[in-house]
Amino acid sequence: MIADKGELAPGLYLVAVPIGNARDITLRALDVLRGADVLAAEDTRSLRRLMEIHGIALGDRPCLPYHDHNGDRMRPKLLEALAAGRSVAYASEAGTPMISDPGFDLARSARDEGHIVTTAPGVSAAVTALTLGGLPTDRFFFAGFLPNSGGPRRRALEDLRDMPATLVFYESPKRLGAMLADAADRLGHDRPATVCRELTKRFEEARNGSLAELAAHYDAHPPKGEIVVLVGKGNLEKISESDVDRSLTEALETMSVRDAADAVSGMLGVKRRPVYQRAMALAKARDSDG
Fold first, then answer.
1. Of the four listed, 35, 99, 104, 194, which is most buried by Cβ atoms within 10 Å?
2. pTM here?
């Protein structure tokens, strides 16, 4: 894709950029940014600053914004440049394009129109967190950002409860405490987890603990910065019906059916709906005997 004279062949180049430390960029990514005819970025200010740090002049080349709010309007312009035989480089605000990133439709459209699409790979926050998090990496599932509101977020977490892999989430610092509390409730209070914050930056942190412990910590100490949450596979030991019944019977002595189902499903790390149905049956049988 790079000609003998250092010029880029026509096509779309997806350029991975640092997530924090500006030196975490590949030589090939710098070559692409230096040689592309047209530059596009989720955040043009961040890209311009990165290029300045590495001594790459923009010159008279266009540097166009491309994000969730203008993609439908900007995409035809970038496709026109590709059709005219120009090289176009696209960079996320941070990390690798296509990973929780608006560039997907651009890459798909370019491919559909027969243009070459390639990448200058590099850092990703998800993989960096897995490297530092201390949780199993033989299998992992990237879930991106969960829904903002509580109900949909809890339902999304419950759908992931039985996933036999380390779970990877991106999260806002403002929602981290609530997200961890919901995760503890739906995935299991004792399930191991790691919160990675400010990766590759000065105040980098990877805090390990159970979901309940981390929820309590970040509720009391609201964090700052970019955050990746890892959740371990949890206890894969099969929970028997007798275990559930015994725990529910004890819980129903002091709790309502709803609260008992919440407590037992969280404690045992099993889905709430069948536990709730079983709690209703046990409560009904108890009331009939009484």
1. 194
2. 0.78
